Amino acid sequence: MRTRLEKWERYRARAKDLSELAGLASDDPRLETEVAAGVAELAEEVAHATLEAQLSGPYDERNAVVAISAGVGGTDAADWAEMLVRMYLRWAERRGFKAELLETTPGDEAGFRSATLTVEGDYAYGYLKTERGTHRLVRISPFDFQKRRQTSFALVDPTPEVESDTEVEVRPEDLRIDTYRATGAGGQNVNKTETAVRITHLPSGIVVACQNERSQLQNKETAMKILRARLLERKVREQEEAQAKERGELRSADWGSQIRSYVLHPYTLVKDHRTQLEIGDPTRVLDGDIDPFIEAALSLPVAASGEAGTAPAQPR
Fold it and tell me: Is the CB of residue 64 less than 8 Å from the CB of residue 161?
């Protein structure tokens, strides 16, 4: 809180300085240009800080663990999941965040059946929680020799990173740990020894897997990190549901609807179905420019509470 207050005090001080300079800039074109640049820079920083001020959830300022899985659409859906992974990696790069691809399960022909990445940066989870839900892609399929239009779905499920092992209790007796041979390209041990790890949390039914690391121990550590994050998210959702019940609110359980559509054919458009925000340049969005959607979603109470569809939708 102190950091936030100090930030706004610095903005006020800069605004005062720019105001005083503006009074002297009427006869100095160079100073006038300098003031205009300073005002534009300050306005951008204030807009960013205003957005951060809306992130008041107990875990909003944490790093995020983002799971992306292919839904309906076969090979196209797997390819779409990989496109989304790239989109979030590029978004993190634009933000100056650190992103790492933790685990991937390749599709049968292309793309990812599932992937998990971490995004480290201030309020990473607060921003990315608005992306939770089903994302729909409409395009001419590059995998269809008849060049027919294909609709694909992928699920995006961000969770806050657990800061300590004691924050979420995981009892050894509640876990079933299976090992198997990793698939795909890798080092000498890949496909020869059982380095891949799958962990099932028996009470919740949550299953996580990791096969990207070279050793079974490293894969187990990564899988446990993902499991703890998902258990923490489950705890958050249960708390929100209990609070909603106490307030007597009726909340939507419309898990099957997509939150956003990306249309590449027969026209180009990205539309968020919660905020109705539309952008006519899908290339720009898929290159990581998703801040307009995040900002619009943060203004919605349903987005602020982290609710959105969480299951791949059926094609209509």
Answer: yes
